User: Which sequence fits this backbone?
């Protein structure tokens, strides 16, 4: 029988239309949470919500842009209005740009990475914390990356800087708000079974062969494995875990 750690709770997942975000949203729903899935693409959000409902769960799809402070505040209000509460938030929305050496990465890529990965996380957390501290507390999990604070790869300076910022922001915000009843942590995945981990021209078979050689574990992480780490940090099982950055990367940054 599936655990029901989140029965009667409401979870908000940004970037919930595909990849890790979808896996995380489905995992919360499977453990009893009502889930708001948010992001920029209404069609994929609707697909995630439909998958949750088809499995007997409760879900709402909410289109938003986390780089807009007004819309992040509205996202929290919409989640509470539709589902009655906000107990858990997972800030998963993010982008990957790269492929050029540091000196050659163009300003547009830097702006996009910093706006989506850093500013988007800041604005989302501010809106979520403001609500949670006024309504009995809650848990926030930010999805960072092993590329950043934990390891670096050539051609990904901008992405690494943006995700290192997410890891640092998580720890700083955790210290500021744990006494408000808001518990904040991060998960830093490595390569996982999503399109983001595929190199140009590469398919899953080629990626599997590459990871067999490159990863200490010998494979990418499944999306379910990353989701399990997120759910642990959001659950009462992690009640005394504050400001941690849990790396799930098969040993790549060890």
Assistant:
């Amino acid at each position: 029988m599936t655990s029901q750690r989140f029965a009667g709770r409401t979870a908000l997942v940004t970037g919930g239309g595909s990849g890790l975000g979808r896996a995380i949203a489905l995992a919360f729903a499977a453990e009893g949470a009502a889930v708001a899935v948010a992001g920029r693409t209404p069609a994929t959000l609707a697909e995630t919500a439909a998958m949750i409902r088809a499995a007997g769960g409760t879900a709402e799809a909410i289109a938003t842009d986390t780089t807009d402070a007004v819309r992040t505040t509205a996202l929290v209000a919409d989640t509470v209005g539709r589902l009655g509460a906000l107990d858990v938030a997972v800030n998963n929305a993010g982008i990957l740009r790269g492929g050029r050496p540091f000196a050659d990465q163009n300003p547009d890529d830097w702006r996009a990475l910093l706006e989506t990965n850093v500013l988007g996380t800041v604005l989302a957390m501010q809106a979520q914390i403001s609500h949670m501290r006024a309504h009995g507390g809650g848990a926030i999990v930010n999805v960072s990356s092993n590329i950043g604070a934990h390891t670096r790869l050539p051609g990904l300076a901008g992405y690494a800087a943006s995700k290192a910022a997410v890891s640092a922001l998580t720890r700083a915000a955790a210290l500021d708000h744990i006494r408000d009843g808001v518990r904040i942590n991060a998960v830093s995945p490595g390569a996982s079974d999503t399109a983001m981990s595929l190199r140009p021209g590469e398919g899953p078979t080629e990626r599997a062969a590459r990871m067999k050689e490159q990863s200490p574990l010998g494979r990418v992480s499944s999306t379910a494995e990353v989701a399990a780490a997120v759910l642990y940090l959001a659950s009462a099982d992690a009640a005394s875990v504050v400001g941690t950055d849990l790396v799930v990367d098969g040993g790549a940054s060890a």
Summary: The chain has seven helices and seven strands.
